[in-house]
Amino acid sequence: MTVKGRRQEYVEATRAALLDSALELFTEKGFAQTSLDEVAAAARLTKGALYHHFAGKQALFEQVLATVNDRIAQTVVEAGAEVDEPWARLTRGLDAFLDACLDREYQRICLRQAPAVLGWERCRELEAGMMGLLDAMLRELAVAGRSRLQPSPLLTRVLFRMLSEAAMAIGEAEDPKAARVEVGVLVEELLHSVHGGNAGSLTSR
Amino acid sequence: MTVKGRRQEYVEATRAALLDSALELFTEKGFAQTSLDEVAAAARLTKGALYHHFAGKQALFEQVLATVNDRIAQTVVEAGAEVDEPWARLTRGLDAFLDACLDREYQRICLRQAPAVLGWERCRELEAGMMGLLDAMLRELAVAGRSRLQPSPLLTRVLFRMLSEAAMAIGEAEDPKAARVEVGVLVEELLHSVHGGNAGSLTSR
DNA sequence: TTGGCCAGATACTCTGAGTATGGAATATCC
DNA sequence: GGATATTCCATACTCAGAGTATCTGGCCAA
């Protein structure tokens, strides 16, 4: 681990600049509507640099996606780690997730465009981390004997997509804050009837 | 309303031929991977004819989509119309829907590609018919006092997307028939805990 | 018959992703 | 420390394919 030389710093800076421009443009104009020349120009570079660092347009998008995705996953994990009780962890995580949905970049990049650009299967591969989080929480709940339905990959998957849709609804609403609240209530009710039907309070043992 | 002349018959035939080729190619190769020249050639025509009948590639796709969508909606409506009791109508409709998901064209065109090609908002506009069906059934259920949650556009939307995801899961499975069964069970359980928690039997009054 | 019109064909433009190549700076080797 | 390889990025190109402009042959109405 030698200290980074000037050269390497420059290289990383151009790469980061490309990712930044791409994130900005993909978010604002959409993947199909932004050309690679634009991305490069916005970073004061040329397509040559871009193709040096990334395999192609899709690969560039994937990197951008991963960045945003990781950021959100991080906050969800942190929110969940604050508590121990399974149900509380789940609701905390969901809250953090829904809050993240107010983030324009997450909305546009991860929710709206990712499936269109990469296709559903590839997209699901990249979503595996998030799905894993949800799956783990549901299993915890099951172990604690707090769920009617036993967890299964299919259940997790279906619930995850439901959350994504709820998330998109938040982003599309004219008043996202209000929508956030409405969605929060609905999701809690849903989870409650699906999993916690036996408990009236979220904090019950 | 005069009888159709030869000429008009020919015109309708070429239009239909274009739609057929497009359906075939979009289904098999995907929207982005099929060129309009291919579509035209497959119908033994040229791009000129295609642009004469359709405003562009997206418009062509929309027509194809509408065709498939209407076909499925039709079967769902018919299945629901066979019974009167709200809960039975819902389960019948869902069964018909999930069966339809075994259809390759519905899978590829409506579920997989539509959002990518047209964008989510336009896609939802075209899904309005289907959503309306689900919404009506849920309201019926609520009127009959058979649901814990009161119906709302958001609830309908979220449940609808959940069904779409379940539908995609069916289509992707190595054994769609088996997946169909698994999904059927899960969906029934879910709806049961969300809406019919008070009833043990699907046919109870 | 004749002029207009419509379905469809032909030939074009133009954008943008991807490629080939060049060249300057830096790293590596002897 | 000079020669050589390698890295990073720029310039100049190809090529596919969506969309457009224009043409033509047949049908219908007057």
From TrEMBL, chains A, B:
Entry GO MF terms: DNA binding
Protein name from the UniProt record: TetR/AcrR family transcriptional regulator
Signal sequence range: none
SUPFAM superfamilies noted in UniProt: Homeodomain-like
Gene3D superfamilies xref list: Tetracycline Repressor, domain 2
Transcription regulation is among the record's keywords: yes
Annotated region of DNA binding: 35-54
UniProt xrefs under PANTHER family: HTH-TYPE TRANSCRIPTIONAL REGULATOR YJDC (PTHR47506:SF1), TRANSCRIPTIONAL REGULATORY PROTEIN (PTHR47506)
Keyword annotations from UniProtKB, A to Z: DNA-binding, Transcription, Transcription regulation
Domain HTH tetR-type: 12-72
UniProt-listed PROSITE patterns: HTH_TETR_1, HTH_TETR_2
Pfam families: TetR_C_41, TetR_N
InterPro entries: DNA-bd_HTH_TetR-type_CS (IPR023772), Homeodomain-like_sf (IPR009057), HTH_TetR (IPR001647), Rv0078-like_C (IPR049484)
Highest taxon in the source lineage: Bacteria
